[in-house]
Design goal:
With 248 residues, the protein is an alpha/beta fold. The chain has 10 helices and 5 strands, in the order βαβαβαβαβαααααα. Strands 2-1-3-4-5 form a 5-stranded parallel beta sheet, with helices on both faces. Helix 7 packs antiparallel against helix 10, helix 8 packs antiparallel against helix 9 and helix 9 runs antiparallel to helix 10. It is globular. The chain starts with a strand and ends in a 23-residue tail after the last helix.
């Protein structure tokens, strides 16, 4: 799982990064809301944002509002970190779409508990293969053949969507959403399945939301291949960890 840390205080960032990496999470660190926007645009695999509220320039609340405005970022959960405990700040954060908040100084146990609790409620990127093997009544060799074929399908779809402009329509591409949905359902790609169902729903306003689908497919491809080398470095002067996270 890839987590973006946003804080102008390097000491706070170091503590967050250390505790998250120690528990098996991959981290990217930026020092401002503006750089966080650049990072989210460059790295589609970020699955959670942890941001300070009080920052020069774009505040954490303003960053949260920007994230919620973007259709391809709207499903990314955000945890706000603050030394402010007044109810008005908490109310504003909740209204803007904050999923949780942590009061400073941040304790490791509290941080990891909130991250884990939050992700339990998120759709699975890729369900455990033992579940799929049991449901489909196949062996692991067959599963691996299916996984390789699905991986190629996802990679090809990402290539097509990556060439599509923001204002262009999926109707102008060769992407078969129904076939992709069927494949995602078979392989337990729950997040992509949910996005595709919304896109195929004639009553939904997400019928042309290919940017959100592109983001979800890139995260899925990472899960299918177990490869983090595809993730670029964030546009920031601070160091990041791009190695494969240890298993929890």
């Amino acid at each position: 799982m890839s987590i973006l840390i946003v804080d102008d205080n390097a000491m706070n960032s170091r503590i967050l990064e250390y505790n998250l990496k120690k528990n098996g999470y991959q981290t990217f660190v930026v020092s401002s809301g503006e750089k966080a926007i650049e990072c989210l645009e460059a790295i589609h695999e970020i699955q959670l944002v942890i941001s300070d509220i009080m920052m020069p320039g774009m505040s954490g609340l303003e960053l949260l509002e920007e994230i919620r405005k973007r259709r391809d970022w709207r499903n990314i959960p955000v945890i706000m970190c603050t030394s402010l405990t007044d109810s008005e700040t908490v109310r504003k954060a909740a209204k803007a779409g904050c999923r949780d908040y942590i009061i400073k100084p941040i304790r490791s146990v509290q941080l990891i508990q909130k991250v884990r609790e939050l992700m339990i409620h998120e759709e699975a990127v890729l369900r455990d293969r033992s579940n799929i093997v049991g449901e489909l009544e196949i062996n692991y060799e067959v599963y691996e053949d299916l996984r390789r074929a699905f991986t190629d399908f996802v990679a090809d779809t990402i290539e097509v969507l990556g060439k599509l402009g923001k204002e262009e329509s999926l109707d102008d591409t060769s992407v078969d959403l129904m076939k992709l949905l069927e494949s995602a359902s078979l392989m337990g790609a729950e997040r992509v399945k949910k996005t595709l169902r919304a896109m195929l729903d004639p009553k939904s306003d997400s019928s042309s939301d290919h940017l959100l689908l592109l983001r979800d497919l890139k995260v899925l491809l990472q899960a299918l291949t177990g490869n983090n080398e595809m993730i670029p470095s964030p546009p920031d002067e601070q160091s990041t960890d791009t190695s494969t996270p240890d298993k929890q």
